Amino acid sequence: KKLGVALVGLGSYSTHQLAPALQDTEKCHLAGIVTGTPSKAEAWKRKYNIPDKNIYNYDTMQQIKGNPDIDIIYIVLPNGMHAEYTIKAAETGKHVICEKPMATSVEDCKRMIDACNRNNVKLSIGYRLHFEPHHQRVMELGQQKVYGAVNKIEAADSFVLRGDPTVWRLDKELAGGGPLMDLGIYCVQGAIYTLGNEPSAVTAKFGEITRPDYFDEVEQSIDWQMHFQDGAVAYCSSSYNDSASRLYGKAKNGWWELQPSFGYSGIKGRTSEGPMNLPNVNQQARQMDAFAECILENKESRVPGEMGMRDVNILMAIYEAARTGKKVQIS
Ligand code: NAD
User: Fold this and answer.
1) What is the whole-number distance in angstroms between the Cα of residue 41 and the centre of ligand 1?
2) Which of 81, 144, 214, 284 could bridge to 21 as Cys pair (CB 3.0-4.6 Å)?
3) Which residues form the GFO/IDH/MocA-like oxidoreductase domain (predicted)?
């Protein structure tokens, strides 16, 4: 049997990526939805053939508890809502996937992990790139020291945010921060899985605010460095007013580069020896199938809540470094 997934929050990512990916998955399928908007419920019901009994709103969501059609609840809400809804999901006894960044504080991450443990359910974070061939190749090149020890990483993830200035991504409460929370997390992840190690300290600097009408609560851009125990340094940047998608690694005897690197498709990679020639795949389908497999075979997720919490801890240290101008040790 294919496991049933219920998506919570039918915004852009659920609509354009996750629901289509769930038509391509082999071990799970789109079984239900949780939405606060009745017109969306109606449209999704027709488009994806979802029975009425599998359609919930935020107040009825706890009734998923008794629904055998649903095995996994996937939280795709604004960052500041991840903790509350992941905990609600865990309390239904269903396994949980939560989108990145896991939450807006380490304390919330801890509460989410505790709730999943208490209810004996698995928790996984929406880190799709762990299931992507170019990124898997980078993990191999870096961690297995194919070109020797890595000494330098460069990572940048940015886009120009336009449109409605009242969106949740610009709201400190709902987003937890600006481009660092949304995009910088890919650079943090990329550096860590290149090296197979966590940074021991960070330094950081906020960029200038040139669009104060948009950036009155969260940063417009940020540059930061992650210092690793073995001497490697990752030079990173994220901005909501620029365009970038690059992950580069330099080792003793060679280098590699993914550019563009962090998108849903069109990833291109090369090394000092030539093009990587790897396929682009449906990342989200692979990510959700891998989690379904973990549940079916009772294995741990490759991208568990603990990894999400580790990253939020680093993001918070980067903010502290940018605020204070000091080098901040990662505890
Ligand atoms: P979105 O704005 O398109 O959708 C957010 C959804 O939350 C909407 O359906 C909205 O109605 C609902 N919502 C409920 N309460 C809300 C409130 N108080 N304020 C605002 N919206 C509210 O956002 P999105 O791009 O779909 O992002 C959702 C989550 O998915 C975020 O955590 C984001 O970081 C993550 N995401 C991950 C990826 C990825 O590649 N893994 C890509 C995009 C988004």
Assistant:
1) 16
2) 284
3) 135-244
Between CA 33 and CA 55 the distance in angstroms is: 5
The per-residue pLDDT for range 265-311, each reduced to its tens digit, is 999 999 999 999 999 999 999 999 999 999 999 999 999 999 999 99
Residue 1 has pLDDT above 90, yes or no: no
Residues 6+ apart with CB under 8 A from 206: 219, 220, 221, 222, 322
**Domains, the chain, with CATH or none:** 3-126+285-304 (3.40.50.720), 132-280 (3.30.360.10)
ipTM score over 0.90, yes or no: yes
Residue appearing with tokens 């992650």: 226
Q: List residues near ligand 1 (CB under 6 A).
A: 9-14, 36, 76-79, 99-100, 126, 128, 168, 174, 182
- Which pTM was predicted? 0.98
Q: Tell me what percent of the residues of the chain surpass a pLDDT of 70.
A: 100
Distance between Cα 230 and ligand 1 center (Å)? 37
**Residues identified as active-site:** 100, 186
According to the model, what pLDDT value does residue 71 have? 98
Residue 207, CA distances (Å) to 35, 178, 215, 219, 262 in order = 36, 12, 11, 8, 22
Contact 120, 219 (CB under 8 A): no
Write down the mean pLDDT value for the chain: 98
118: three-class secondary structure by DSSP = helix
